[in-house]
Amino acid sequence: MKLTVGGSLKTVFRPWVEGLENIPADGPAILASNHLSFSDSFFLPAMLDRKVTFIAKAEYFTSPGVKGRLTAAFFKGVGQLPVDRSGARGAGEAAIKSGIEVLERGELFGIYPEGTRSPDGRLYRGKPGGLARVALATGAPVIPVAMIDTEKIQPPGKVVPKLMRPGIRIGKPLDFSRYQGMEGDRFILRSVTDEVMYEIMKLSGQEYVDIYATAAKRQIAEEAKKAEAARKKAEQEKAEQDKAAKA
Known about the structure:
single chain, alpha/beta, 47% helix, globular
């Protein structure tokens, strides 16, 4: 399945990649990437010879019917790992446990430190719980990755993807073994996460925003709601004015 999907993506979109030499030929490593699009988890593995395991919502693997079975088969084929996200803390612990298990098998584990897709193409503050805890618990090197232009291929609400070349920049491995066993120290977790996000920012060229992407999404939703309310109010006032003018 990986060969089929990867080959199709390479043929159709022709993604470019820099820094493949930074991916180890064997042994465990964490690929920490920015997150611009749903397709990030497909383009990155497609360009690597080694399997990369990402975390995916359990719902992708449990939906009923023929479509559900096909979706589950697709996600399993491209290296996605189901995690139940019902409950924030439980979801985080499950993701950490899964990541550690992948790395203990000597494999590559992919993670998005922002925790969710960027709502506007900017780079947001990394969440310290997942990435740093997995890195310090395993001693695996962290490889910063920047996805380029993937958000332009299939923006939210668009069904048909745009044919264009996305890019991938892979940075040099970061060694945090000096902090191994200190995953209980929140200041160390913050420091590790910020160092990784700084490297991702340099690779991607994105504007950095020092708030969480989830908070930014809430702000955007609230602003959109206020704008819609203001628009409706303006329309109502105009209608009342027009009615009064005709009277």
